[in-house]
């Protein structure tokens, strides 16, 4: 099978250089894959970008899903492999993914975890631990930490491979939204008879945004779009789990006000808040204890993870509500 690796970018950056370098080092026949880079404007094809396997296709200032649709039209591979510019693959990434595709024609998509690299900063690792927490990702922690193989119904496009004929059949991403574009593609795939398989061996590494500003800006966008999708596309986004952070924020604010006027409400409010903090601390301790870090860094990570989880809940909850009331998204 031949593969087209597709990477949507704004412009050249250090992470993109690393991504391309690691793609060129894959344990895969060099003649069987190409790398398509989709920047806003043309890039100078020097150094690593001058490799004959690299195609650069300027797209103008458009959203990543539109860029990926353009890349798919230009792709020569039988498999489309989507990466983000701040990810890079394990050397066996394509080999493991293609082995799964070859198991059955019914397997239309293959995906795998996006793990925080060991050389990320402590602030980036804190963000990775926040995403890994059950209190943030629920049953989807396998997206950030390798877990057992399984079938999935939705998966991020930072590590997502799909048969090109299936991608064309469902019409590609065909949405301007970002983030959230992957939800629509996965829904269309599931409406066919094809399966979506997750494997821990289909591994990429994903540089995180730093706690707290960069991380929370990303959470704002996630919450805003999911709230909007819950209203406009209820088939995939009208789920109770997406409303929980907003319910938490409202309970935090309303409970705090009511506790000023009632001692019984104050007692229940204080107990609930303490239990919530205990859950955060417990989750954070479990994650930090498994981290391969020095004792000093583990203490820092514990602090970052505890506050990161709380602020993620609060930020997502507020922007989810904002999305519910939004008339349209900025990129529409």
Protein model, in words:
The chain has 332 residues and is an alpha/beta fold. It has 2 domains: 3-112 and 155-206, Alpha-Beta Complex (Spore Coat Polysaccharide Biosynthesis Protein SpsA, Chain A); 213-325, no CATH class. Helix content is 49%, strand content 14%. The protein has 12 helices and 11 strands. The strands form 2 sheets. Strands 3-2-1-4-9-6-10-8 form an 8-stranded mixed β-sheet, sandwiched between helices. α10 (240-258) packs across α11. The longest helix has 31 residues, at 295-325. The protein is globular, with a radius of gyration of 21 Å. The mean pLDDT is 93.
CATH superfamily of the largest domain: Spore Coat Polysaccharide Biosynthesis Protein SpsA, Chain A
Q: Which consecutive residue ranges, at least 5 long each, have pLDDT under 50?
A: none
How much of the sequence lies in strands comes to: 5-15%
Provide the CATH top-level class of the largest domain. Alpha Beta
Strand order of the largest sheet: 3-2-1-4-9-6-10-8
Over all CA atoms, what is the radius of gyration?
A: 21 Å
End-to-end Cα distance: 36 Å
For the record, the count of structural domains works out to 2
The tally of helices reads 12
Could you spell the SSE succession in H and E letters? EHEEHEEHEEHHEEHHEEHHHHH
The overall pLDDT average reads 93
CATH topology of the largest domain: Spore Coat Polysaccharide Biosynthesis Protein SpsA, Chain A
Secondary-structure-based class equals: alpha/beta
Number of strands: 11
Overall shape: globular
Give the second-level CATH assignment, the architecture of the largest domain.
Alpha-Beta Complex
Helix content: 40-55%
